[in-house]
Amino acid sequence: MQRTPALALAAVFALSAGAAMARDDMKPAKTEMEKCYGVAKAGQNDCKAGAGTSCAGTSKVDYQGDAWKKVAKGTCTSIKTPNGTGSLTPKA
Predict the structure, then answer these.
(1) Phi and psi dihedrals of 11, rounded to 5?
(2) What Rg do the C-alpha atoms of the chain give, in angstroms?
(3) 65 or 55, greater pLDDT
(4) Contact call for residues 40 and 46 (beta carbons, < 8 A)
(5) Distance (Å, rounded) from C-alpha 38 to C-alpha 61?
(6) In whole angstroms, how far apart are CA 73 and each of 17, 51, 79, 82?
């Protein structure tokens, strides 16, 4: 009769380990990002935006060509703005 608590405890540990492994498998994959120029609104760029700016939030106008924002890899050139589409290189 003394085996029952030990078996129950072993079952609990086994189920706990299985649940922990299942949670690790359910984590979403990390999305790759890339710099996309000309898509940030004024003050919403992610970093350096050309001469006279230093870093995040310093772009002066909407869709500034040399200001970039990080976007999901492969989506930049499909982002449409009033000035055209996003670019993987700075715009003049």
Answers:
(1) -65, -40
(2) 25
(3) 65
(4) yes
(5) 10
(6) 35, 26, 12, 22
